[in-house]
Amino acid sequence: MRKKQTIKEVKIKEKPQQDFKLIYTVLLLAYTVIPVITPNFYTQDSNGTKFLALSILNLITFSVLLSNSAYRNKTEVQFGFFNTAVGLVYSLLLGMMLLSFMSAINLSEALLSFVKASTIFTSAYLLYVIFSQYQKSLSIIALALTTLLLFDSFTVFYNILTYISHDIVSIGDVKSVYSNKNILASAIFVKLPAVLYLLIFSRGWQRIWAIITGLSAVIATLLLSTRAFYLGLALLIVFLFLYAILRFIANRQKGPLKMIAAWGGIFIVAVFVYIGAQRYLFPKSAKSIYDVGILARLSTIGSESSSGMRVETWQRSLKMIGDHPIIGVGTGNWKVRELQYENPTTGEFTFMYKNHNDFLEITSEIGIMGGLLFISIFIVVLFSFIRTCLQPEADETQLKLLFLPAFGLLAYSVDAFFNFPADRPEIQALFAIFLSLAVAASIKKPVVGDINKFSVAFLQKISSPKVSKTMAVAVLVLSVMAIYLLSLNVKSLHFQRYVKEDLNVNQFTHRYEELEAGFPSFPSISAYGEPIAVNKARYLMNEERYRETIDLLSKDHSSPYDSRREYFMAVSYNKVGKPDSAIYWMTKARDLKPLNYSSSRRLSAYIWDKGRHEEARDMLNQLLMTVKNDKDCWLQAANFNLLENQYQKALMVLDSALKYMPGDTAIVNAHNKLGNDLMMHPADETFKRGMKAYDAKKYAEASRLLSEYITKTPGNPMAYKVRAYCYYYLKQSQQSLSDIDKFFNLGQTDYFLLTMRGINYIALGNKAQACADFKTAMDHGNPDARQNYARFCQ
């Protein structure tokens, strides 16, 4: 019987076959390049396609490892990742993400977040295997990262030249192959540790390469004018200086001190180049927040509105952590739960879907213990690096392996404190590289090193081929599932882009059936936090399919603090003639987001239509006591008075509106028009009786009284307008058309009335003129005109 091989009998160092060296090199290059160059394939967010590409790359890499006996037959390689402090903490962090599913409001969002996180975890594990088996991989990855860094830097220079030549209007538009300027700046900054590594540990042409790349990268970072990385550059210098001091204390090494001087020289040259470009090359007529000096830019950290919004979001996250300290609100559910805290402070539907601080966001999603585990990753690596630096006879291989992850994670932490790299695959790939190097360094030369007794016992228990095969099958199954779910996410992002583009131009270019067939069932929330059901509902409402809108939204519970569901349901119920249901749902929408004045205005209008005039007026007046700068609130309050023929009260409301919004055109026009109307009919009883009859829907009587009034006062446009409505409801299209023309001939403008003129033309068979009126009214924002144009003219 063959004697079972023990851990001590396994060779510590075994080089991979020659063929696998080449394959490993290709895979390492793929992990640095693919997350950057993968296009968005016409999706709303390129993160989706890049995470999918990483998951596919993971499956390919794992298949390669399974074909290599150096991995397949060695348990200590397979499970060594989990026998290091870094690997164990990272594994526990993933476990806390799973545990947080128990508190998640939206499970599909939690699953998507976990799949992304597990994709990066798998990448880290696979890279650890390559790094631990292939010692030259460290130099390869450092050169690959610096090459990519130089490419990023030169794309910045190219874009800055286009800014200087006025081909782009702002430095904020510089983004290279990334989604925006901040991600580009992050990608440059987080790769800078690779330059430091080559600067300290390489010789000859590699060191020259590091100097050229480092100078280019620092200049590019300064040109991008990103305040977080201005601070980050200073932090890197401080920690590089501390590293040199530690090595000097340990064994009187002067080499690191010389490299600090070289890095300092690079930084000084970069600053002078930046100042010179700014002073002599930048357009003088296009000053912006990005065109100021370094100190001036840093001074805006606390003053810009974006900084204030970020701090407010952090404060809400701290409140969220205090309310959910154990397992958080569920991984991926920060943007779902955050609305509970943000809704009372803003009426806008453009809200923060990312916290701009991964430390706080991860803690709020998976609890304080999970947050501490995330922070522990950085602490463990930094502690191991400092301990190694202080050893007089420090192992050179381990020092090299630890240097890049220590400084890399330091740079990553700067980005994580001010942004959200956890959702950026370009930066997450770097995180996986740094963490895998830290694990490889913890295991030492190159895999096992001084494994403690517990690890030996553990590895012996799981060293059976059956366990290894089970793990391999599990990883393959999970990888395939990840690819499937991420592909569904990419498909969803494709249709999310359609919706976003339509909303940007305020025009629906797609039909509901196209979206219903295109959107997969996963995920249920868009990349920007809006429920997919709400995305679809917009199209149903545009097509006047209100009952289907109600059916669709009533089944959706993906984001209970997003009031758009309740708002659209209320509007739809009102359209199908169910005012009580409309009031119920609009009340819920207002209560969810009390500062969204559109909800309050519509609710008061619904209540008014039910005959509860005093209640509706009080509701609107109560709103106007706190809200002074919403023109629609003022106009509706004035209109309530007009509907009761209280013209003087309406004029008083508009007088008050002008005090708070003196330059608003709509209020000025309404005030002037009402003033003119009052001059033309200050106290005419016939006109009042006609308006009263109109309000009572006695259109024949109202038209007769208004005709009597017009014979006495032919210059009052209001009389023609109201009589036009009377004739419209009496199906007397030609008479209605005549009054509308008289209204406009008196120099008045009313796009609702223009829409009604189009409807009269339809009734009279003049479709061409009707469509012209609908188009004009639609271009000026009239929603009824848009619906009629879609119905009769397309």
Describe the structure.
By secondary structure, the protein is mainly alpha-helical. It contains 36 helices and no strands. Helix 5 packs antiparallel against helix 6 and helix 7 packs across helix 9. The chain is elongated.
In brief:
By secondary structure, the protein is an all-alpha fold.
Secondary-structure topology with pairs:
Blueprint: H1 18-37, H2 46-66, H3 69-72, H4 75-79, H5 85-99, H6 107-133, H7 137-164, H8 181-201, H9 205-224, H10 227-251, H11 255-280, H12 294-298, H13 305-323, H14 334-342, H15 358-389, H16 396-418, H17 425-443, H18 453-461, H19 465-505, H20 512-518, H21 532-542, H22 546-554, H23 564-575, H24 579-592, H25 597-609, H26 613-626, H27 631-643, H28 647-660, H29 665-680, H30 685-695, H31 699-712, H32 717-729, H33 733-745, H34 751-763, H35 767-779, H36 783-792
Helix pairs in contact: 1-2, 1-7, 1-17, 2-6, 2-19, 5-6, 5-15, 6-17, 6-19, 7-8, 7-9, 8-9, 8-16, 9-11, 10-11, 10-16, 13-14, 13-15, 15-16, 16-17, 21-22, 21-23, 22-23, 23-24, 24-25, 25-26, 25-27, 26-27, 27-28, 28-29, 30-31, 31-32, 32-33, 33-34, 34-35, 34-36, 35-36
Most strands sheet = none
- Low confidence ranges: 1-16, 445-452
Structural class: mainly alpha
Q: Using the alpha-carbon principal axes, give the shape.
A: elongated
The helix fraction, in percent, is over 70%
Distance between the termini: 84 Å
Average pLDDT for all residues: 86
How many DSSP H or I helices?
36
CA gyration radius, whole angstroms: 33 Å
How large a portion of the residues is in β-strands, by DSSP E?
under 5%
Number of strands: 0
